[in-house]
Structures are given as structure tokens and as C-alpha cells.
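ingest -> fold -> write
write: protein_1
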Amino acid sequence: MVREAREALSVAVLAVILTGCGLVPPFSARPADTPAAASPSRPGTTPAPATTPAPTPEPSSGAPRLTPAAAKQAAASWVAAYNKMIKKRRWADDPDAMSRLLGEAALHEAVIDRAHLEEDKKRVRKPIRLTGRQTYYVPREQPPGGEWFMLQATYRGEDRPHILSFWREAGTPSFVLAGKSPLHYGERVPEPRRDSGGYVTAAPRTIGTLLALEYRTFWNSPKHTSPAGATGYRLAKDNYSRRAFPQVYKGLYAAYRSFTPAYGFVTRGGGSFYLFSLLNNPQGVTQVLTVGAFVPRGRKTIDEIAGDWYA
């Protein structure tokens, strides 16, 4: 019954939000059987397969399209609008409001919440109250078609910092939440490489795509006998997903069909940190896995700094 409700809701809500309201992801989520592509594709198109990552485009000249100060202001505006939205008891029934604030993985989580609301009328989302230090990760060079940034902050009432990613498509007035996850206990987001203006260096999107592919392969392989590691990367032996997999897999689990764009930056030590999410088929949304993945310089193993299995 729960699964049937979620399937019906996901078809209706995601179809309206992702197409009817004009919200288009920056790059289409990669289906499970699609190799990494050299460039983003628009919804409804098929990415051209590629066996090796394409080189990162040369940085463009000119002033940054998004400043750290503007990112901070955008995050504050988003939090205020989000808290106002979820005050409404049936906020998940308003696709227009959701499309203005939520994107990518956050939309899939909203579909899950809407199914929960159908079963439990008293269930509510907690407002986000940012406390303590906030760390912004704003790349100087932005991808074609929009701007992104990440934020690390602590919520009031939470005992762990969270890492959030925001995206604004070109021509749209405000940012949407792309993904979020609490940090694992005892973990820290690696320090980024910053220039004199405080901007981070964006990590190659192609590497982030390979990491997401590796995670998708890992989670969709019950005995991990499929081509794990074929991307050139492999989950570290002490990766948190290796610990969580046995418990999660025997519960309510559906294979991940695609994943979101991987937003990432180069760390001070020369490694890379990315935030991305694994998604079900939109016709059967039951869970979202958002991961903060770190690959140290010179290594091909993936450490998991943050992780959230939303179901």
C-alpha cells in the first residue's frame, strides 16, 4: 500500500514539478546504464557515451557570476522561504511552491514526505534554524547554464553539521536546494583550496560522475560481485556505505536508477570533495541516498564524509 501510494504520488508530483512548472535540472540525472558523458544533457535527450572522462573546460575570463556574499544572502533568503512553506499543513500538495525551492534530490524527498503525510496527518518537517559558524563553498568558475554553491552549517536541535548544495538555473530568480546530508559522526569536510578572494576551485564534474556511478553500482549489487571498481574508483574498506548496506538492503529498498549532478571542489591537499544523490525511477520513489564523498590526492578510494538515506 505504501509503495503504491508513493508510485502514484511520484508520477503526479514529479511530472508536474519537473516539467509543468518549468524547473529543469542543470544536467539530467544519469540513468543506471548510462556511462559518464563528457557534457551535461537536457531532459529528454540521450547522453553520448564516453569511456573516459573529457578534459575540464578552460576557465572563462571575467568577474565571478556568484560571489560568497551573494551566496550567503541567497541561503538566508532560501531558509526563510522554506520555513514559511513548510508551515502549511499541506505544503507537499503545492508543486509551484516546491518547484521554487526544491530541486533534484530534494524533490524526490518531498515526494516521500507527501506519501508519509497521507499516512500520518500529524507528521511535519522541522524548520531549519542555522546556528553557529557557516562555511560557504563558492566556485569562481561556474558551469554553463547556472550557478551553484555549497554550505556547511549546523541546525538548531541537531548534533551534527549538515552540508547542503544549491543550484540556480540561468534565467531563474532564485536558488533551489539540490541536496543535503548530515556529516557522519567524527567526520569533517576537508578544507578547500581557496584563492585570495575566498573562492574555491571547482572539481571536475566528470570525476564526480564516476564516483556517483561507482556508488550506484555498489548499492545495486547485493553481493558486490558486479563490476565494482570498473570506473577506476572504489569505496574505501571503512566507507560508511559498506557498513550500512547490510541493514538497509534487507529493508524497504529499490534499485537506484540515476543520480544527480555532483557538485564538488578541490581540497587544500589536492583531493576532491563532492556532494551528489542516488535516485529511484521517478515512477517508484522510495528512498534517496545523498553522499558527501572525498577522494584524497593520488588515491582511487572513496571516503564517505556525509551520508543520508532518506526513506
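write: protein_2
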Amino acid sequence: MLIAVVGTSGLGRVAGVLSGSPAALLRVVADRPDTDVVVLTSGHARASAQRQADLVAAARPSARVSVITSPHHALTLTVVADRVLAAAPWLSSADDLRGLLLTELSRARSLVWSPAAWRLRGVDLGVGARLRSLVGGRNPVLDIAPATDIGPDGWLPAAGDRVYTTGPLPAPLTHRLDGHHPQRVTTLVEDSRFASGSAWLLTSVPFGPVTGTGSTDPGAATPEPPAARPRPAAVDRESEAA
């Protein structure tokens, strides 16, 4: 079985589907035409995911492709997929894999921070928070999913939270994380809502093993820097709400 995420370059055994390559999923499936493929996509990229899934269905009808559309951003989808594959390599049922992915996504948080939070699209920032960002330079860490009212100070990490990001963090964000040191993972994330260089995506998951796997592993995603290894390309099809 294969998991592919739309909007990233992949991570470990997770395949990436970047927007600049309309046949990325098809290229991955070409090497394994009879496999089950689960595609994870954020809502804003659902149309692209569906087009790629339809292309695979037409060109490789023996490949069984399903799409899970989620409110999470692509970094969270990638981290969760990597954790699930690492914790449950024995999974052989696509239904079980989808169920485990949905359970883990329900426990994760997709976050974003920007030094100009008032400019961010796709986040619900109240008038007071916009003013604090614009005038006072106070920029909270914001929830993308689940969308919750987290107060004027934004999201703050709880004891035991595992936080992931893709690169070095600016000093103001490091200060806001209050001593938490995010684990860096190596993947390229595309998200048209958050321009590169002006926003930092983060993922938070609770400490502990992946639910239902019986694993004693604390659930770390593939760390940076990974050894050079072959990485699949991409995948797609129908849609299930996460």
C-alpha cells in the first residue's frame, strides 16, 4: 500500500504530489499498478488531487486509489502519514489504513505563524488580533485545523506535545514556543495560501504511540537530515471527509 500527499515532495515512504507535475501520481503508480493508494489532500488542493486520481483510474484501472480530503495543511498530512507507516508497517487493508490515518489526523493540529499575521489568508483572525499584529507586532501561532478559538495569545504548546517544522525558525517564533524545540523534517511544502518566506507551518501531535498500533515508539516522524533514499512521486482519486 502507498500513501501520497498532495502539496509536498514526500517524506520517507510517503510519496509526494507537487502541483507542478500533473502526472506525478501516475508515475508513482506506474511501478506498482496493482497497489492500493491513499491520497491525502488539503481542501484547497482537492480539485488537483481528483484530477490526478482520475488520470490514474483511466491509465491504470488495476490501481485502487482513494482520496481523503482534510482541513489540515500538507505538512501535517505528511507527518501523520509518515508516523502511521512507521508504526504500522504490517497494515494490509486499505480500510484499516484509512481509519488509522483519520484517527491520527483527528489528534493532530495544523499551525501557522507569520510576522505579519494580519496578512494571512485562510485563517480566522479577529479584529483585536489583527490590530495587535499590525500595531504591536504581537503575532500568535494560529490554528488551521482544528479551527478553534484559542484566545488572544494564540496556540501554545502543552507539555508532551511533539512539534514539527521544515526548517530553521525565526527568533520571535522560537520565543513563542516557550522552550519547545520542533523536530525538523525534510520535505518541500507547497501551499498557495501561505507564501514561502512570510509564513512558517508547524504540526503538533500529542506525545505517545500511534493509536491502535500497539507500538511503543513515541511517534517521531522521519527526522532531518535523512539518508539519501529513493522517494516515490505522487497519487489520487475519490474523496472522504477527514
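write: annotation protein_2
The longest strand covers residues 36-42.
The chain has six helices and eleven strands.
pipeline exit 0
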